[in-house]
Amino acid sequence: LRKNVEDFTGPRERSDLGFVTFDITADILNGKNGLQTFRNKNTFIIFDWNVKQLFLYLSAEYSTKNNALNQVVLWDKIMLRGDNPRLSLKDMKSKYFFFDDGNGLKGNRNITLTLSWNVVPNAGILPLVTGSGHVSVPFPDTYETTKSY
Amino acid sequence: VRAAAAAAMLSLDFLDDVRRMNKRQLYYQVLNFGMIVSSALMIWKGLMVVTGSESPIVVVLSGSMEPAFHRGDLLFLTNRIEDPIRVGEIVVFRIEGREIPIVHRVLKIHEKQNGDIKFLTKGDNNAVDDRGLYKQGQHWLEKKDVVGRARGFVPYIGIVTILMNDYPKFKYAVLFLLGLFVLVHRE
């Protein structure tokens, strides 16, 4: 559901820093992952009477030599009940610095970006749901020294 | 009988009532009281075992997770070792040397092959991550700092705990009234 635009890395204090720009288009209201209402058999409606908000986050998951599993949240958003459930964001920059624990981003071919969300009910269980569709992004082999971002 | 007990408490007759109870009834009431307290303790310990958390129910103390959680909301936690810590989860953790647990969301994790994990947290309502809150020189949290993961919640109910903490006189008044009621209650 999302596309990605290329990026470059730069080492800072001996750790790799990645820059990613991305587009997000997501239709969360009628997604296949969500809470079921009683009336519709095939479509699931997320914002039912017991959902106060969704906490959406875009996370990057990858492996490095140092660490078998790394997950970094690049961007997040709180979507309250009543907000437009169709997202169409273009050319977004990551909200948080994408630092690796070491130098594992350089030349890393397989960084998977996934959109997930935490359903916050008015009262009850707090499930974490992963959206369908994810994108793999490779990082280049060289560092960029230009700070244009 | 309950209505009678309430009316009796309001006037000073209840003192006569207590004197009228013979020694046996008094011991019975005390034992009853003891049973209630031990059952409550057993339920609490049972919850600790089932959830794997040393504190399976916590009250949210700050506004750093708004608008999801507000001060006074009650959170239900689990801390099972089989559940790995992943980004997006809401964790309750303690900083070494501090008593108060903090409820925030996991922002970054770095996990080694053998399962050792270090992670960073941030409150939804805070502008920056929690590194400033950690101990001097501490950059990451580890599994041992975690009290539990929030799995469910109920709003508002925890306000009573906060009131009891902030106004100790209120706490003593509540305990006193409860104790009195159980002792005098004749059912």
From TrEMBL, chain A:
Pfam families: SPC22 (PF04573). GO terms for cellular component: signal peptidase complex. One of its GO terms (biological process) is protein targeting to ER. It is found in: Endoplasmic reticulum membrane. It comes from the Eukaryota. It is a single-pass type II membrane protein. Keywords: Endoplasmic reticulum, Membrane, Signal-anchor, Transmembrane, Transmembrane helix. Its main location: endoplasmic reticulum. Essential component of the signal peptidase complex (SPC) which catalyzes the cleavage of N-terminal signal sequences from nascent proteins as they are translocated into the lumen of the endoplasmic reticulum. Essential for the SPC catalytic activity, possibly by stabilizing and positioning the active center of the complex close to the lumenal surface. Belongs to the SPCS3 family. This is Signal peptidase complex subunit 3. It comes from Oreocharis arfaki.
Automatic annotation (TrEMBL), chain B:
PROSITE patterns: SPASE_I_1, SPASE_I_3. It is a single-pass type II membrane protein. It is found in: Endoplasmic reticulum membrane. Residues 44-135 form the Peptidase S24/S26A/S26B/S26C domain. Keywords: Endoplasmic reticulum, Hydrolase, Membrane, Protease, Signal-anchor, Transmembrane, Transmembrane helix. It catalyses: Cleavage of hydrophobic, N-terminal signal or leader sequences from secreted and periplasmic proteins. SUPFAM superfamilies: LexA/Signal peptidase (SSF51306). One of its GO terms (molecular function) is signal peptidase activity. Its main location: endoplasmic reticulum. It is an enzyme of class 3 (hydrolase). It comes from the Eukaryota. GO terms for cellular component: signal peptidase complex. The chain crosses the membrane at residues 26-44. Its EC number is 3.4.21.89. One of its GO terms (biological process) is signal peptide processing. NCBIfam families: sigpep_I_arch. Catalytic component of the signal peptidase complex (SPC) which catalyzes the cleavage of N-terminal signal sequences from nascent proteins as they are translocated into the lumen of the endoplasmic reticulum. Specifically cleaves N-terminal signal peptides that contain a hydrophobic alpha-helix (h-region) shorter than 18-20 amino acids. Belongs to the peptidase S26B family. Component of the signal peptidase complex paralog A (SPC-A) composed of a catalytic subunit SEC11A and three accessory subunits SPCS1, SPCS2 and SPCS3. Within the complex, interacts with SPCS2 and SPCS3. The complex induces a local thinning of the ER membrane which is used to measure the length of the signal peptide (SP) h-region of protein substrates. This ensures the selectivity of the complex towards h-regions shorter than 18-20 amino acids. This is Signal peptidase complex catalytic subunit SEC11. It comes from Oreocharis arfaki (tit berrypecker). The lineage of its organism: Eukaryota, Metazoa, Chordata, Craniata, Vertebrata. The gene is Sec11a.
